[in-house]
Each structure stands twice: as C-alpha cells, then as structure tokens.
Write a structure and sequence with these properties.
Number of domains of chain A: 2
Number of helices of chain A: 18
CATH architecture of the largest domain in chain A: 3-Layer(aba) Sandwich
Number of strands of chain A: 9
Number of helices of chain B: 8
CATH topology of the largest domain in chain A: D-Maltodextrin-Binding Protein, domain 2
Helix content of chain B: 10-25%
Largest sheet of chain A: 6 strands, mixed
Strand order of the largest sheet of chain B: 6-7-8-3-9-10
Oligomer: heterotrimer
CATH class of the largest domain in chain A: Alpha Beta
Order of helices and strands of chain B: EEEHEEEHHHEHEHEEHHEEEEEEEEEE
Shape of chain A: globular
CATH superfamily of the largest domain in chain A: Periplasmic binding protein-like II
Number of strands of chain B: 20
Largest sheet of chain B: 6 strands, mixed
Chain lengths: 410, 399, 306
C-alpha cells in the first residue's frame, strides 16, 4: 500500500477540468528553488525552522485553510474603489533579487505608496506560509509558473480584472496565453529564464552544446560537475536527452531517465542550486547546471565563463505576479502591476538586475547588444525546444521523488 | 586527652634493617617550601607515625614515599633502593588514603582484587588472596556490595584490605581514621594495631591526632613547619619533649615563657615573664645551648656561670595532670617550692576527670587535671596549686 | 461585570475555619501554580506539535492545502522501502562516525583541560574550545568547504610540501570532518564536566595499586566518567542524526540523510507531509528510546556513586 493510493482518486477528480487544458499540468507542487547568493541557504534553514512553527499553529484543518474568506474584497466590489487613488503600504512577497531601491523609490514617487518587500527562497516555503495564514499582509506575490497552478487550484488567487491593467497587450506572444495560466487570468509574467550549463570553455577545451557532453566525458569528469538541487530539473534534463518530455508522467520513462542519470553519478560533485558559483569560478568543478539568471550574474564577474542552453532543449521558467485573495490592499497591487508593465520601467529592471522581461515593448527599448544576448533572451529556435516545468499528479511526483531519493542516497 | 594510656613500646620487636630512608628530602611547591630537608629512618616491621598539625608537611612526606610527589631535593630509599624516578606503580608500597579512594564502579571484591588483576595473578590465587584480605578486615560478607552501600568504617576496612592484598613492603596510611567518629576510631585503632602485629609489616601512618599516634606507634616523628622536631617512642615524645612545640602539641601542657636565672647542678631557677619563680629539675638536661637550632641563647647548659643580668630565654612546661590542687598549701618544703595561690576560674567536668583553670596572682592561668575522686570545687574558691620540680620541663624557645 | 469585591465574612469568627481551608487550598494549589509556567511551555511547544506530527503521520498522503483522507498506517508501511532504509542507515552511520570521531578527539582535550592543565587556565581553554559554537553552523560548513575543496587551503598546503593533492570535498570523510567539528565542543563540554568531577585521588589509588597510566585510564578514568561519556556520546549522536546542513554541503551527491528526507517531504517535490511526519515520528521514537536508556543508565550510576 502506498500513500498515493488513497490520495489519487479525489485528487484527479478535482483536477479534471484543468487536465483538458494542459494534460501535463496536473496536480501538485514542485520545488524550483532559485537564485543565488549564499544567503539563500540561511533562508532555507530558517524556512525549515519556520515550517516547524507553522506546523504547531494549525492542526488537521491545515488542509482546509481558505484564504479566500468572505470578508476579503472581490475584484468586482473593488471596481468602484479603484478610481480612488491607491494609498498606504504595499507588502510584496518576492524572490530576493527581483526588486531594487530604484524601483521601489520610483513607484513611491509616482503613487505615494510605500513598498515593503519580503524575500522567499522557494515556492514551497511561500506556499506553506500562505496556507498557514502567515501571509495575509501581502498584496503581491511572485510565484513561479507551476506554483500559480497550485495557488489557483487552492483558491488562493484573485482573478485579475484586466480592465484595470494597462500594457498586457505588449507582452510577447508566448506570454499572452501561457499554459500555466490561460489568458493570464490570475497572474502576469514578471521574470523568465532558462536552465542550462555554465562552464569555462578554456578549461573544457571546446564548446559544450548539450547535456550529452556529460555522458560522453563521464570518465574524465569525476566529481567535476554540479547539478541543480531539484528533482524535476535534473530528471527533466535527462528526460530531454532521451527525447522525452520534461514533464513526463510515464513511470517507465522516469525509470529510464533514472538509469541514465546513474551512469553519470560519479561525475556529480554535488547537487547545488546555489553555492556552485564559487566552485566553478575557482575551477574546483568544470561544469555546473544553473538557472540562466544566476549564470548571467556570475559571468558578469567572470567573463571567461560561458552559459549555454542545451541544444536538445531545457526548461524555461516564468516567475509571475499574483494578488492573493487575502490581499489587504488590492488597489496598490494593481498599481504595482501597472507600474511594472510600463515598458521603460521593465526595461530599466532588465538593465539593472539582468532579469529577462516578457514585455515586448520593454524589449524594444533595450540596447541592441542586450537584445541579442541569447543568454538573457534565447532565440525563438532555442525556446521552441524548451518546456516549462509543470506540475505532475501526486503519485507521479512520488515516483520522481523516490528515484531522486535513490539517486542521492546510492 | 591526657588520660591516654601510653604504651611504652620498646623497639625490640622491630628489625634493625631499614625499610624506608629519607635523606635530606626537600619539597618546594610554587616557591613554597613544604618539606625542609628531613632525614628519617624507618625500621622493618615498625609502626611509624608522622605527627603534626595540618600544613606541617607530613602528608607531603608520605606522598614522596608513595611516589605521588618527587622530592625537590634529597633522596627517598625503600629497602635500600633509591626511588628516584620510580613511579608509584613500581614501588613496593601501598597506601590507605584519607578518603579511602575506593573505586565506586567496582564491588568490594573487585576493589580488593584490583591490583592482583593487574598482575594477571592466577584465578585460584586471586580468589584466595582477596578472600583472605577481606577476612582479615572482617568484610567477607560485603564482597558483593558497592562502596556507596557501605558505612565509613566498612569503607575503611575495604581500603585496608585493598592495600594489604598486594603484600606491600611498607603500608602507608594517610590519616586513615580521620573521617570516622570517635567510637569507630577507637575500634579501628585496636584493629590497626592487631593487624600490624599479625602481619609484621612496616606501617607508616600520617596523622594529626596525637592520641592516635601515641597509642599505636612504635616511634613517632613530630613535624612542624616542614621539619622534624623530634623522633622518639611515644613516651619519649610525651615525657621528654625536646622542644616547646612538641611539648605543646603532644597532650595539654601549661607553657610559661621566662628567663633562666641560674643553673645549678640539675636545678634551674626560672622567672617567668609574669614574675613567677619556678624551680625545675628536669630529667633530661636543659638543651637550650646545644640544640641544633641557633637561637638567642648564649648560655651553656650545665655550667653555673650564668649571670642574672644575662639571662637565657626558656619555656617551662608542666603537664596539667602533674599539678596538684588543694585548698591549703602543702606541708613539706620540697613540694612547696613550686606552690602558688590562686582562684578557681573555670571548672570542666569530663567524666573520669575534672579540668580546672586556676588564675594566679600574676595573672597566669594554670590548667589542672584531676581524677574525678572528690567532690567538685566551686568557681571562685581560693586554692593552691603546686608541682614537683621534677615534673617541670625547661625547653628552648621556638625559632 | 460588576467590579465590586465580594463582601468578606466577619474576620474574627471565621478566621480559624477559613484560614485552615485557605491553607489546605494553598497546599493544593501551590505545586500546581509552580508547575503551570513550565507545564504550559511544555504543552505548547513540545507536546502539542509532537501530537500534531503524530496525527499527520497516520494520514497517508497528507498534503498541505488538500482535504485530508482517512486515518491509516500507509505512511509507516512506506517507510520500510529499501531506499528509505538505505537513507536511515546512512544517517545512523554518519551519526555514529561523527560520535566516535568526537569521542576520540574530544576525550584527550577534555582530559587535558580538566586534569592536566593548570586550573587557572581551565576556563580560558574551555571558552576557546567552545568559541566555534558561537558561529553559525552554516558558516562553519562553508569554512570547511574552503579548506577541503580541490583548490582549497589543505591542498595548497599539500602542494607547497610537494605532496600530491587529494580529493576531500563531496565525500563521506568530509561529512565526518564537518560534523565532528560542529559537535566537538558539545562533547568536550560534557566530558569536561564529567572529568572535572573525577576524584583525582582515584587515579593515585590506581597508580598506587600498580596500575600503569594506561591501565589507570581504562580501568578507572573511563569507568568513572562513563555517565559523561554516555551523555556526550548520545547528545552528539542525536544532534548529528538530525543534522543535514553539513552532509548536504560537504557530502556531495550521495548525502541524502533522514533529516533531508523529512525536509524534502515537507518542502520538496512531493510535499507529502504524512510521510514526512511518519519519518519524524520514527526519529523521535528512536531518539526517545536512546535518551530513556541513558537516563536509566545514568540513574544506576549516580545511585552507586552518590
């Protein structure tokens, strides 16, 4: 008897309607801990402690937490209020390096709204906090694509009133109707990127163009590579080299991917989402699997390094902005979204923070060398081979997890 | 205290060969000298005590024999062999510690068997010897107990058995009875004495209890301030102390400071600082001049050329039990030579004896110990105290 | 909501009876009142969360944000899969290795501070040894990465000595080094407390009875400090069993521990809180048994020596 047996049935029933839209986008929550700075580890540890505390706060009815309680204002009832100038404070819950002082200052000058940004380090931590009722102060959250699905499913998000948003039409076509949130009904894309490999071409002696490099050179790469500490990214990349989908739900394919991964186990020095930068820069490892965002940051410091999106395809991810139902200040939240949808503001962020924008108008404002930077903005040809990591049903998630446990404990 | 029965032990029972020799042994701790060059010969089979107040260096001396401390100078020899650099575990001595130092994690049996097991002694022999040792101290019934389950006296016995089981050349005892109550102490004293006779071993005991030393020892070394004041049999030490310290430390005594006015034949005329004239006729000669310690005394002992102006300092010691206490002065002139009037200032009932304090006209207080024979005298009674000149000791002053 | 105080009965008459009753009441209430703060603390922060985890562990496949299913023992059955067994085994081996290393390194140090060092230096030495505890365990792990990595200080030293450089990082020995370094201060502190209480005269007694220093150590020092050794060993064992930062950072690709497994169940891919809870309960049970054994053992010993 396995734990998914009981869970599976009603879970699938719940999600049937969604399944029509995107067969792979079933069910729950996958981790995508992202983005750099050693600080992230501290956050992770404290998150573990915090989640212990969360546990003590709520008993079995954790599962019935309803963030969309009746007293929280619905978008329609807010329509009238929207004409009033938004005011007060705006609390946003976001990844550590998605905002900077200039952005917050500029927003405050324009709207008079004071912004307080709290960082989170993983979607799961954010979800746990929101579901436990610890995030009622936030009017804006930055979940990743697959987490948007979870949050919609859990009824945590306010459907967006598109009449209150200006500039949605300037989004790149790919984000006009994204698979994780059809028609941007609950979210608007904030930052996107890819997963790939970063390495020192001089040390490697040639250009790496795909995942297969690791398999081809596994004899000479003992403890020379780091992979992202994330089951779906690592398994997805392997699935991709086998020609399968990043989001496969076939246990058989997952098993094949696992068997292939085992072949390169000796080459894996460590699974690191963050903390690989230093090891790569110092030459302790030769190749690291990384999110484009982190890779670009490091390359700014170490121009000798190179980031590549594997030719067989990889994952493309989007971090979005959403308004939770519990948002105390939805007017300010709309104001924030509108501010970030302004092409000049979005372009400024790309220049300062080196984050990729999904806003075509903003892209057009960028200098040509930035536009042509295919690390930041991969070509359509590259993107066409990439998939977004999408949620899989709980029992499949467990299959992934068990192979992962096996891989990391063998 | 002074009712102590003094065993006038002869040295006849002991071998003349030496078990322990100390030669000019010094010990300095952090610049403080604990032992100042002592010489000691301990004969085979002897029960030898080192007696002194706390801090006199007696325990340090014992620890140097055991090997826990290395002498800063001089030499310790056991059975003629120098113990220089020989660690405790290679010395043919065993120690009974003041606190017993029993191993709490081992049973009585295992405590006693400890040293034999280290020597990988055969099983049968081990059982026999541990059994014998426990029987010797009457602890056979407690073999399976742990030390914490025993009384102080029982622990003491186990400590003894543990030290004896190894058949040491010399048994060292560091204040062995110090932690016991009076009654138990008396019992154990008798047993220690019996053990010594039975085993014929050399015992070296450190104690601050003069009564214990007097009652058990063949010979005693009295230590003070890192030096040996006197070595002798208990009666020698008690009856003929060589120094004021010994006289004062061994038993109670009336110690009066004064000047020697004249020495004639064996009779000394002494005037105390308070003005008391005392005639002393000690059995041992006045040793003020020939004592090894150099002091202010420039007089020579037996000659009578001592001028009154150039008096020599001395202490007069009279044991309380040698002082007579009467309501009227004695009739005979001999006795009346050291006779003084005074008032009873203090009476202490001791059961077998009564202790009195008499204040003389000079302000001196004389302690008197009398057998509890007649009825008690009342406080404030006018009395006379007197003593024989032969019971008076004249001693050189302390350094 | 009247705030007026209840009228008190005539004092003189009722004094004996009421004061007696009051005394009785006080006697009854006092111990309870004294226990209340710690009791509430214990209940809120220990008992309640543990009960919650216990409950979750009996809901197979429980996930945050989804309706809970029926009770069952599915989670516990799942624990006994070979892969999980392997993880548990590794965690236990890490913990044992760490404990043994700490013991081997910690005992001489504690012995030296407690028995051999001049007493005026003792506190200073202790503080020096405990100092690393004041830094974050994460910082310590990163420091070890700096030392052990291929281009790290240790290999620089080796190459300066014309010795071949070695691979240290991302392997099991690095985990032992990092964990032992983390927990050594605890071990030293506990062993010090135990050794300091050791009656030095027992060592003299052993020596007097013919035991060489080595024999004294094994036959007296170790048995006498056994409660401390057991306490220190258990504390280090338990804490290192729960450790996942160090194995994670220093242990490389094969460093999955039970703590990380639990973390993964709560905040990872599957978010299977039910399974995570059952692993937690397994760990709590194991640790509780170990502590119970220690208490029993410690009691016996203190009864004997006290």
């Amino acid at each position: 008897m396995s734990s998914n047996q009981h869970h599976g049935f009603d879970g699938e029933c719940d999600r049937l309607p969604l399944a029509h839209l995107a067969p792979d986008h079933l069910a729950p929550h996958l981790p995508l801990p992202r983005f750099s700075a050693a600080r992230r580890r501290f956050l992770k540890t404290s998150a573990a402690i915090a989640s212990g505390f969360v546990l003590s706060n709520c008993a079995r009815n954790l599962s019935n937490v309803n963030l969309g309680s009746g007293d929280s204002p619905s978008p329609t009832s807010n329509a009238g209020v929207a004409k009033n100038p938004a005011s007060g404070k705006l609390y946003i819950y976001t990844w550590a390096n998605y905002t900077d002082d200039e952005l917050i200052k500029g927003f405050q000058e324009k709207t008079g709204i004071q912004v307080v940004a709290d960082p989170f380090d993983s979607n799961e931590t954010m979800m746990a906090k929101m579901q436990a009722g610890g995030g009622t102060a936030y009017s804006i959250i930055y979940p990743s694509d697959y987490t948007v699905i979870d949050m919609v499913e859990a009824g945590m998000l306010t459907p967006l009133d598109h009449s209150r948003l200006q500039g949605l039409d300037t989004l790149r076509p790919k984000w006009q109707n994204p698979v994780y949130d059809r028609g941007n009904a609950h979210s608007i894309p904030a930052v996107w990127g890819t997963t790939g490999l970063i390495y020192d071409p001089q040390k490697v002696g040639k250009e790496i163009d795909g995942w297969s490099y690791i398999w081809d050179n596994r004899k000479s790469l003992t403890r020379q590579i780091t992979l992202i500490d994330d089951v779906r990214e690592v398994m997805g990349a392997t699935l991709r080299t086998l020609g399968y989908s990043y989001n496969t739900t076939s246990p058989d394919q997952i098993k094949k991917a696992y068997s292939k991964l085992v072949q390169i186990k000796p080459t894996i020095a460590s699974f690191l989402t963050t903390g690989w930068e230093d090891q790569l820069a110092s030459g302790d490892v030769t190749v690291s699997m990384a999110y484009s965002q982190d890779a670009i940051k490091l390359i700014e410091e170490k121009p000798n390094l190179k980031y590549v999106v594997p030719k067989t395809g990889s994952s493309v991810w989007t971090d979005t902005m959403v308004i939770p139902k519990s948002a105390p200040n939805p007017d300010a939240a709309y104001a924030w979204m509108n501010y970030l949808l302004q092409p000049d503001i979005a372009a400024g962020l790309v220049q300062r923070l080196r984050t990729a924008t999904a806003n075509q108008a903003a892209f057009d404002l960028l200098p040509p060398e930035t536009q042509k930077d295919d690390r930041l903005f991969p070509t359509e040809a590259m993107l066409s081979k990439c998939e977004g990591v999408a949620p899989v049903p709980a029992r499949i998630a467990e299959v992934y997890d068990q192979y992962w446990t096996r891989l990391t404990s063998s | 205290m002074s009712q102590t029965v003094i065993r006038d032990y002869s040295v006849s029972g002991t071998d003349t060969r030496l078990d322990v020799e100390l030669r000019k042994v010094f010990k300095v701790y952090d610049g403080e000298t604990a032992v100042r060059g002592i010489d000691l010969d301990i004969h085979q089979g002897e029960f030898f005590s080192i007696l002194g107040p706390s801090g006199c260096g007696k325990t340090t001396t014992l620890r140097m024999i055991a090997g826990f401390e290395d002498p800063s100078g001089g030499e310790v020899m056991i059975r003629g062999k120098s113990m220089l650099g020989v660690p405790p575990y290679k010395r043919p001595v065993n120690t009974v510690f003041q606190s017993y130092a029993l191993f709490g994690h081992l049973t009585v049996w295992d405590n006693v068997a400890f040293s034999l097991r280290l020597k990988s002694c055969g099983n049968t022999e081990l059982r026999e010897r541990v059994g014998d040792a426990l029987q010797l101290v009457k602890m056979s019934d407690f073999a399976r107990r742990f030390p914490a389950q025993l009384s102080g006296g029982q622990q003491q016995r186990v400590a003894l058995a543990r030290a004896l089981v190894n058949h040491p050349t010399v048994l060292l005892l560091d204040e062995p009875l110090g932690a016991l109550d009076l009654k138990l102490r008396k019992e154990m004293q008798v047993e220690l004495s019996n053990l010594h006779h039975e085993l014929g071993l050399t015992f070296v005991m450190v104690t601050h209890d003069q009564e214990e030393a007097l009652s058990l020892s063949d010979r005693i070394a009295v230590m003070n301030n890192g030096k040996i004041e006197q070595i002798g049999t208990p009666s020698e030490i008690y009856e003929h102390p060589k120094t004021a310290f010994v006289a004062d430390f061994i038993g109670d005594t009336n110690l009066l400071k004064g000047q020697i006015e004249s020495i004639y034949a064996e009779t000394l005329q002494i005037v105390t600082d308070s003005g008391l004239h005392i005639v002393a006729k000690p059995k041992t000669l006045w040793n003020g001049a020939d004592s090894s310690s150099s002091n202010s005394s420039s007089s020579n002992s037996s000659s009578s050329n001592l001028s009154g102006s150039h008096a020599s300092e001395a202490f007069v010691s009279i044991r309380p039990e040698k002082v007579h206490l009467e309501l009227s002065p004695p009739a005979d002139s001999i006795s009346s030579r050291n006779c003084y009037a005074g008032k009873l200032k203090h009476v202490m009932y001791l059961g077998t004896h009564v202790s009195y304090q008499v204040e003389l006209a000079t302000g001196d207080r004389i302690a008197v110990l009398q057998p509890n024979r007649s009825s008690l005298m009342d406080l404030g009674t006018s009395v006379y105290v007197y003593w024989a000149a032969e019971d008076c000791l004249a001693l050189a002053p302390q350094e | 909501m009247s705030t007026s105080t209840p009228s008190s009965p005539p004092l003189a008459e009722s004094l004996p009876a009421s004061s007696q009753g009051w005394q009785k009441l006080t006697r009854l209430i006092e111990p309870i009142a004294l226990l209340v703060p710690s009791g509430v603390w214990l209940l809120l922060l220990l008992v309640a969360p543990t009960l919650l985890i216990l409950e979750l562990s009996f809901i197979p496949g429980f996930r945050l944000g989804q309706s809970a299913g029926d009770y069952g023992i599915g989670n516990y059955l799942e624990i006994f899969q070979p892969i999980y067994f392997q993880v548990i085994l590794r965690s236990v081996l890490f913990a044992i290795g760490c404990t043994v290393t700490c013991m081997l390194l910690g005992f001489p140090v504690a012995y030296w501070i407690a028995v051999m060092a001049p007493s005026r230096w003792r506190n200073l030495l202790l503080v020096a040894f405990v100092l690393p505890l004041w830094t974050s365990s994460l910082l310590r792990a990163y420091a070890w990465i700096t030392i052990l990595r291929p281009s790290g200080s240790l290999n620089s030293l080796l190459s300066a000595l014309h010795l071949p450089s070695q691979e240290w990082l991302n392997q099991t020995p690095a985990v032992y080094i990092g964990m032992a370094y983390s927990f050594l201060p605890y071990m030293v502190l506990i062993l010090y407390a135990s050794l300091e209480k050791l009656d030095k005269r027992l060592l003299e007694a052993a020596s007097d009875l013919g035991a060489t220093p080595q024999q004294t150590f094994w036959k007296v020092t170790v048995p006498q400090t056994l409660p401390g050794i057991a306490a220190g060993g258990l504390l280090v064992f338990i804490t290192s069993l729960g450790e996942f930062v160090v194995p994670e950072l220093l242990g490389g690709a094969s460093s999955m521990t039970i703590s990380r497994l639990i973390y993964n169940q709560f905040l990872g891919a599957t978010r299977n809180w039910g399974l995570g809870s059952s692993f937690s309960i397994l760990m709590i049970t194991g640790v509780s048994i170990a502590i119970a054994l220690l208490l029993k053992y410690g009691d016996r010993d203190s009864a004997l020596s006290g």
